[in-house]
Every structure is written in C-alpha cells, then in structure tokens.
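One-letter codes give the sequence; the fold follows as tokens. Both lines appear below.
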Amino acid sequence: MPAHSIHPATSPEPIHPSHDWRYSLQLSHSAHAPGIARSTVRIVLHEHDLIPLLDSAELLTSELVTNAYRHTAGEIFLRVGWSSAPETLRLSVWDTSPTHPATAPHTPAPYRTRGRGLFLVRRLSHRWGVHDFSRECRGKAVWAELRLG
C-alpha cells in the first residue's frame, strides 16, 4: 500500500468555469418557449457548476422569453454566455420586432398579474439593456447579466 492515499473531499469546492463559453437556442413562437428556455438554462448552469446563479437565471430567462413571445410574432433566439473576467453570465433573447420594450419607471402594483417582467429584470440583474439589430438585419436582443459572487 502506498505511503499516501487519496480520500474524497467531504465538501468539494465549487468549480467555476475558467474559460468563456456560449450556447444558442432557436425557439419557435410557441407558448412552450419559456419553459423550454428555462430547462435549457438550468441544464447549462448545472453542467458548468453555476448553481448560485440558477434561480435568478431561470427567472430572467422566463421573463425575457415570455416578453418576446407575447409581444412579437416570429422566432425567438436565446443565447447564454459566460465571461470569466469578470465572472458574468449573460442571457440574451433576440426577437424579430424592432420595438424596444416599454419600461415602467415605478414599482408595479402588488396585485397586477402583468407588467412585472422588466421590473424583475432590473431588480435581479447586475446590468441589462437592449441591442438594436435593425441596421444589421432586423429585430432586437434584450439582455441581462448576472455576476457570480
């Protein structure tokens, strides 16, 4: 028997990605799109051991894809990207409409069932914004970033 032995760690340290990566998903204009997008983000973050970002990332994905589904008529594209410096997850949702989302300057009323999407995006994300693609092709991408730590 060797003088040293290997023992499994009792509480492993999380392994955070040390390199940048990106995943893209094309979604049909369907009521199923938000759920499919959430499931995809959940799988990606599990595989990259980014569990601390999981709940916020799923909610942001759901809000961004739901807005694209409700307010546009064409296909929807989700892009999930990681930047290791600084440790940032970016969720981008592209749709065919050039119209930017309307942002309410105030907190939504407590019992409203709609109008909370971008409020939640603003509250949960480190940064968020809109990239206009009308000159390159068409449409726009609404994005939100989450920082690790």
